[in-house]
């Protein structure tokens, strides 16, 4: 294959972002590999490739106008984007259909016979066939008879489709089987054969191939994840390229099996239309001015509200290090500090905690607490990565007890229990013949599960790992003394807490749900789709270790001997707070700890009361009864909306808590503490912009894309979901493409009543514009996010608020 064509193939697959498996689900911007282009340009290209809108559609904008944004926001947007258009022009155009048709793919152009109305379209039939084949290929948890995968994905598909006697009936072409048998045996040879047949213009070849992949976008995203995982493990995975060869082959197979004059005309028309792709992109971008202006007006309205609240509080930002501090104005020492994840759901709880007692301060930090760990559950061979998807594990987390001699026996017991369940029960249930007799033989054993579905229990949150028995069970990091001190020092710098209180709570978060395929989507994204318990427990143990503290003192990073770190998890579904390793708290701190627990219980009730209004629950219950109602909801297997998750997220504020303390940010803001006075070389700021800022952007765009482009990036109606391969993903119904992204119920009250608002992330950083720009100039991906309008970036200092544009910064003066 010539280098140009090889590059076209590589470019096409490089544009597909990965999708993580269900049990480790993390949010991803599905357009992440397209951010090198401006958003309006990507929207135009995307429309021509898929016929799907990347931005809020006209129907939504018509409803939002006058409610979520007003004429002044629209006018400001038009002045920046399309000065020749007026608000009245926009309102008239809003009710006109979008006039530009997407470009046809070969399978669509050929699908024109009279029987078309009595069968699946070729696009749907091909997607279904590929999807069913890939579901069998990737399943390693449901079927007991497993396919032979040694030759690779393409070879497996080719063997399956050769023996698929129904495919001719599906497609309405009886003679297609002989052409299938003639397919090249190697996926690279197949790709070259297809490209030779298509004979597209070299400049648009990659774009056409990307459009082809987007017809099976769910599986393409899964294959992109397999490729990413292999790269991190130092191996090679070609599944995504093989999937492209499979999908490409179908178009030419249909052309070969239907050599009519009309088919040849359709083929030439496809070649002709795609040769004009770049010109079509330019005209489509111009035609999208209505959607682009509407999306910008939505953002401007949200920015106006947020910045109006923040602007008067600039004087509360910490003074520069050189300025003298008035001793009489110095705050009283904190009696306790609670470190929460930056997750938007923590904002409500932090506000409630601070309302209980001003001497209990809260701090925002990434929920994995700087512990980028790989954890192997006790008595298991599998492992879990408890860290952001952007990172690779740097430490190992293990379970331990004070009695090391008891570990082998405890581990043996765990393994035996697992073997019994898998070999005797699961094995029988999932075996090819056992499935027929399972219900008759052991069906009554499932009665308790059915009862729990009908009558949800008050059981607490199920822990997400296998834990050893015994009160002295601990989580520890497998590091030597120097590595422990290095990690502790790095985390303490990131925390930025000047003086530690007697009690410091490291509070991760997790979610309690039942019968929920997307349960991991409610967990901590910074912990790889798991809860933050293990990271919090491991770090608390590390920072309480006397040997680590002694090393830190020698490095001039002291922790007061009276300070105790305690691990906890905020259950975001019920707002209950669970503590761990309480038996390790010194006796002299127990009374203060019990008082703090009472305070946090009161804060939890306040948070539940606030959330109850949004979930349509009654708020006149006693604290105990309101908690019961939330727990019932969490344990209800028929509840398709256990909580709203991160819906309505719209901002990330990287600044001291003094800027936002006391503000009701309505659970819409990620909050990460940052003080530039403690970061003279800006190394911490660069880390925050390249990790938490990107994670927040991914979360923001997962919601944005699932809302605006649900057919490709939303998983549809949760009621219709069927899990594929144990944890690969879901089908909506019994087939079609693998569905990725968020279910409809995570975004809408009902089909006609949205809850989420599609807003691009507003990132507000307490740092000088020059410091921010230095980092952007070193980090091309971050610069693309800002310059290409994928998010909005602001600098806030005591001098003012400044919004960054590609040409520089613009001062915010209180208006638009």
Describe the structure.
With 816 residues, the protein is of the alpha/beta class. Among the domains are: 3-15 and 106-276, no CATH class; 330-404 and 444-643, no CATH class. Helices cover 46% and strands 12% of the residues. It has 31 helices and 21 strands. Strands 11-10-18-19-20-21 form a 6-stranded mixed β-sheet, sandwiched between helices. Strands 2-1-7-8-9 form a 5-stranded mixed β-sheet. It has a 4-stranded mixed β-sheet with strand order 4-3-5-6. α4 crosses α17, α8 (153-162) runs parallel beside α14 (239-257) and α11 (187-198) crosses α14. The protein is globular.
Helix content class: 40-55%
Strand content: 5-15%
Compute the number of strand runs. Answer: 21
User: Rg, please?
Assistant: 28 Å
Largest sheet, spatial ordering of strands: 11-10-18-19-20-21
Q: Alpha-carbon distance between the termini?
A: 54 Å
> Which residues form runs of ≥5 with pLDDT under 50?
321-328, 466-471
What sort of overall outline do the alpha carbons produce when their principal axes are compared? globular
Question: What oligomerization state is this entry in?
Answer: single chain
Main beta sheet: 6 strands, mixed
- Round the mean pLDDT to the nearest integer and report it: 90
Q: Structural class, please?
A: alpha/beta
Number of helices: 31
Describe the SSE topology.
Elements: H1 3-14, H2 39-50, H3 58-64, H4 71-81, H5 87-93, H6 106-110, H7 122-138, H8 153-162, H9 167-171, H10 176-181, H11 187-198, H12 205-214, H13 217-232, H14 239-257, H15 261-275, H16 277-287, H17 289-310, E1 336-341, H18 344-356, E2 360-365, E3 373-375, E4 384-386, E5 395-400, H19 407-430, H20 434-442, H21 447-454, E6 474-477, H22 481-495, E7 503-510, H23 533-544, H24 546-554, E8 564-571, E9 576-580, H25 587-615, H26 623-634, E10 651-654, E11 669-672, H27 683-690, H28 692-708, H29 710-713, E12 714-716, E13 721-724, E14 729-732, E15 742-743, E16 748-750, E17 753-754, E18 762-765, H30 769-778, H31 780-787, E19 792-797, E20 800-805, E21 808-812
Parallel strand pairs: 1-2, 1-7, 3-5, 7-8, 10-11, 10-18, 12-15, 18-19
Antiparallel strand pairs: 3-4, 5-6, 8-9, 13-14, 16-17, 19-20, 20-21
